[in-house]
Amino acid sequence: MQDILLIKYGELALKGDNRSFFENRLMKNIKNALNEINDVKIEKTHGRIYVECSDNTDYVIEKLKRVFGIVGITLAKKVDLNIEDIYEASINIMKQYKDKSFKVETRRPNKTFPYESMEISRKVGAEILSNVDNLHVDVHNPDVLLNIEIREMAYLYTDVIDGIGGMPVGTNGKATVLLSGGIDSPVAAWMMMKRGAEVNAVYFHSHPYTSERAKNKVIELCRVLSQYGQKIDLNIVNFTEFQLAIYDKCPPKMTTIIMRRMMMRIAENIARKTSSMALVTGESLGQVASQTIESIYCTNAAASMPVFRPLIGMDKSEIMGLAKKIGTYEISIRPYEDCCTIFVPKHPVIKPVLEEIEEIERNFNYQNYIDNISIDVQSIK
Amino acid sequence: MEVYLDNSATTRVRSEAIEEMVRVMDINYGNPSSIHLKGYEAEKILNEARHNVAELINCEDSEIVFTSGGTESNNLALRGIAEIMKKRGNHIISSKIEHPSVLNVLKQLEEEGFVVTYLDVDEAGKIDLKELKEAISSKTILISIMSVNNEIGTIEPVESIAVLTAQYELAVFHVDGVQAAGKIEINVKNDNIHLLSLSGHKIHGPKGIGALYIKKKVRIKPIILGGGQERNLRSGTENLPGIAGFGIACKLSKEEFKGNAERLRILKKRLYDGISAEIRDIHLNGPEINDGAPQILNVSFPGVKSEVLLHALEEKGIYVSPGSACSNRKNGVSHVLKSIGLKRELAESAIRFSFGYFNTEEEIDYTVSVLKEKVSFLRKYMRR
């Protein structure tokens, strides 16, 4: 008898012909997540992935809880396919419960096993009742549900730990996320990863007006995100000179919106160079002046790639709740100025008009700045 | 050029103190409580340092208790008195502009049933003695007022407060003297102060060491229990290297007091005059230039966010604080600048310059020229 982790993945099983592609990617991501842990064996059979580990099971479970695509994790006993061994393991598992009601449920994908599932449940239930004190059966509302799965071996378990869900990172293309260091953008990145996208990131650094601590904050955010299944390439754009030029050449109330359009253009260039096919922002409708529909319309017009805004319909409190769950919140709230807050016009335009903005931009040779901007890339995991 | 103008956050350690600390770690590494000769030698160093600290504020050696710094001294003073006196009274008086290591202890004491009156301050940061007179009563067990404010340099009327509190039998007077030591005259004998907090690293000594002066016959309950060191008031093996360095820093502070305070005031005035002459539309926060402590100058540059100017100066090797080093990690405006009624735009553009032993006039002139360039440059871009 041996401890083993059964990994359930839901949505993937529906993917028909592409199923093995998703499964293989999930296998690869699990291997990556566990690669620094010794003595781990990962195997795949029909609809299930099994992880065998010698000790530190809790640590392995913690790692698996951050792998997208996993719906549930169960700590199971693996025993030989014969009814006596199944009895013994069942009794052992149930001995840890006192004064509880229970039910046995059996699934039997392996039809070569001589007993049918109902029969197995009944027999095992009877064995438990006669060997373990203070337990009784309740088939409708049991305190403890003992699951038995008959495959090439038999697997027995009681609790299912919730996985994080979603799709395996790397199964849905690549997107480039604009990370500011605030609360929203890391959550947006995480939500894209959750749906299987691989992401890389862009951060606009205005040295010396934004500090090294602000940059380090974004690096740390990437480190947290990278624990969800991929290394993250962070493109640090040296933005100061260009930013000052924008402020020099554009009317004050338009500077914020024009700056955001320039950021989209730079991010799109980076995306193209890195085989990414979409941009991601942390915008949420109406949160600030630059996030009205009119403003988003104008910013969006500067990009030709799809721009995803996974937080668009979320309230600030919902986003904060997610940020706490992901582990980015405490880093995001460190109070350092970022490039969007250092030079804020007194009255940013709330309903910008695209034609006016384009007119202003025509008088400003911005392409030269975009083409020559310097970018440092850091790979973070 | 590196110009360190953040001496109210912490200071560079004097080489005399460093040498003494290294010597103590290397040679006099004994435990002062040990009975053998090595312990006795260590104890002698402890006593000598204690004497140097006592000399700085004119008290008896036996009235000094070493702590881990200003924060612990303030905690020990406030909680120590509150615990001892809680059966006899529950009223405490302090001000709105105290250091967080005072305010946060008071907040906790309030949760435990103590009643705290927080005195207002005027636009220079000074408390009103009349308001204090009205607040104080026979139920008042503790008055805690800082001598020099760490953000704007206001000097509070400690002598007058001492005279007033002396008329009330229960009232113990605690002074947070962390920013005052070595900069303005402190004489606990004349001033009738019962408790006074000191810190090593604000006077060119090491970090992690401080002291609390506890006047003879004032009873106080310890907050750290253990082997009974420091007359049972602060257990734990003494931080002897720190104490030795602190002792040297106090000794130098005492010897050089007059000249040093004068020099700091000249530097402060030079910087302020330079800024006033070269940069338009600036605002001096807190006391008038000749009234405040000699080492602290708080000025707003409306139109330029504190943090942005700070980093612009940093790029030129000049180190300053926005408002205060202790409040810049939290969101919002400093509680001190709020209490003196500073408008939001001024508070958000406040910079604290604080001077120390190592600063020179040349550094000040350099700072003025960089400020002139950076402020006018940044004003072009901000808050238009």
TrEMBL record, chain A:
THUMP domain boundaries: 58-160
Catalytic activity annotation: [ThiI sulfur-carrier protein]-S-sulfanyl-L-cysteine + a uridine in tRNA + 2 reduced [2Fe-2S]-[ferredoxin] + ATP + H(+) = [ThiI sulfur-carrier protein]-L-cysteine + a 4-thiouridine in tRNA + 2 oxidized [2Fe-2S]-[ferredoxin] + AMP + diphosphate; [ThiS sulfur-carrier protein]-C-terminal Gly-Gly-AMP + S-sulfanyl-L-cysteinyl-[cysteine desulfurase] + AH2 = [ThiS sulfur-carrier protein]-C-terminal-Gly-aminoethanethioate + L-cysteinyl-[cysteine desulfurase] + A + AMP + 2 H(+)
Binding positions for ATP per the UniProt entry: L178, L179, Y203, F204, R260, G282, Q291
GO CC annotation: cytosol
InterPro entries: Rossmann-like_a/b/a_fold, ThiI_AANH, ThiI_fer, ThiI_N, THUMP_dom, THUMP_ThiI, tRNA_STrfase, tRNA_sulfurtransferase_ThiI
HAMAP family in the record: ThiI
Role noted for this protein: Catalyzes the ATP-dependent transfer of a sulfur to tRNA to produce 4-thiouridine in position 8 of tRNAs, which functions as a near-UV photosensor. Also catalyzes the transfer of sulfur to the sulfur carrier protein ThiS, forming ThiS-thiocarboxylate. This is a step in the synthesis of thiazole, in the thiamine biosynthesis pathway. The sulfur is donated as persulfide by IscS.
Protein known as: Probable tRNA sulfurtransferase
Gene source species: Aceticella autotrophica
Protein's gene: thiI
TrEMBL record, chain B:
Cofactor(s) annotated in UniProt: pyridoxal 5'-phosphate
Domain annotation Aminotransferase class V: ranges: 3-366
Any one Gene Ontology molecular-function term assigned to this protein's record: iron-sulfur cluster binding
Xref: InterPro entries: Aminotrans_V_dom (IPR000192), Aminotrans_V_PyrdxlP_BS (IPR020578), Cysteine_dSase (IPR016454), PyrdxlP-dep_Trfase (IPR015424), PyrdxlP-dep_Trfase_major (IPR015421), PyrdxlP-dep_Trfase_small (IPR015422)
Catalytic activity: (sulfur carrier)-H + L-cysteine = (sulfur carrier)-SH + L-alanine
PROSITE patterns per the UniProt record, alphabetical: AA_TRANSFER_CLASS_5 (PS00595)
Domain of life the protein comes from: Bacteria
Keyword Electron transport: no
Enzyme class: transferase
Signal peptide: none
The enzyme's E.C. designation: 2.8.1.7
Record keywords: Iron, Iron-sulfur, Metal-binding, Pyridoxal phosphate, Transferase
Membership in a protein family: Belongs to the class-V pyridoxal-phosphate-dependent aminotransferase family. NifS/IscS subfamily.
Name the UniProt record assigns to this protein: cysteine desulfurase
The species this protein was found in: Aceticella autotrophica
